[in-house]
Amino acid sequence: xxxxxxxxxxxxxxxxxxxxxxxxxxxxxxxxxxxxxxxxxxxxxxxxxxxxxxxxxxxxxxxxxxxxxxxxxxxxxxxxxxxxxxxxxxxxxxxxxxxxxxxxxxxxxxxxxxxxxxxxxxxxxxxxxxxxxxxxxxxxxxxxxxxxxxxxxxxxxxxxxxxxxxxxxxxxxxxxxxxxxxxxxxxxxxxxxxxxxxxxxxx
Amino acid sequence: xxxxxxxxxxxxxxxxxxxxxxxxxxxxxxxxxxxxxxxxxxxxxxxxxxxxxxxxxxxxxxxxxxxxxxxxxxxxxxxxxxxxxxxxxxxxxxxxxxxxxxxxxxxxxxxxxxxxxxxxxxxxxxxxxxxxxxxxxxxxxxxxxxxxxxxxxxxxxxxxxxxxxxxxxxxxxxxxx
Lengths: 203, 177
What we know:
The complex is a heterodimer of chains A (203) and B (177). Chain A is globular, with a radius of gyration of 21 Å. Chain A is 74% helix and 0% strand. Chain A is mainly alpha-helical. The longest helix of chain B is centred in the first third of the chain and has 35 residues. Chain B has one domain. With 177 residues, chain B is mainly α. Helix content of chain B is 82%, strand content 0%. Chains A and B meet through α1, α2, α5, α6 and α7 of A and α1, α2, α5, α6 and α7 of B.
């Protein structure tokens, strides 16, 4: 989740520009430019306060998750997910290095370890590319892998819990089960849609 | 149903902490040292977030203060209400697939504006967690190996995002609505 800080956001560039230009334009038309001045200063100040409020809870969660990682929780979970692998990726040969990387990536994502998941995912797609007969075109296995990655079941939404704690929530974790269910539905839709498109497209 | 949900969700964190520590201890991890290592990373991430938060909160702050946000959202209120979708969270829902840091900032904005324990605050949190940033993931992964024709991958990712966000709203309505 948090690994998406920075990079790859071209569309956002235009949206951000539009936000500012239209806000200033509209406030001038509506005759209240001073409201925008005030909002800009207040928002900038608030942003820093918020980030500082985040430091403590974020440090705690990532500290705890590092223990989970060192204890081999990612590896255990990856092993538990192995049966699903053959169903999801029939085109990847049994025992291929891609299998380990993909399973570890998915396990890290489930545990909310975005920073551990990304390098594993990059390793997985590099191996999938080696298996690809047409290097410029995505293979069905790549599409399935990314379909799962773009939503991914999440058991521990740590950054969100941290942000809620920082905002003064008395029940920061009430969202854990709803979030888990929503990601479960999203992932099921992704897997089913991927299957349907794979057949339609003619792999 | 709501009571059960609350209890189970609230117990999830202490139980998880307990489990991780027991597991670390049993597997011979030097727990304190490892914790500090991870905590350092948490510190860095929070500090690295500051510029993104400033940029997005200033943009959405200007949009709201100028009156333009209300002006755009007001006509959408009735049709979205009919669907049960909270109009206040439309910007968050639309940004979710584009940028993780932008939607994170919008979620934080919702937590500030409506309170983290309000219906809107909880729904915003669930929405943010419901899916990952499709555009970013496709760009990074396909970009890293030079795949140019991505076939149906974007379509599948966006469909899953819509399903995740829709489910987030539905569950929030059922549990907290």
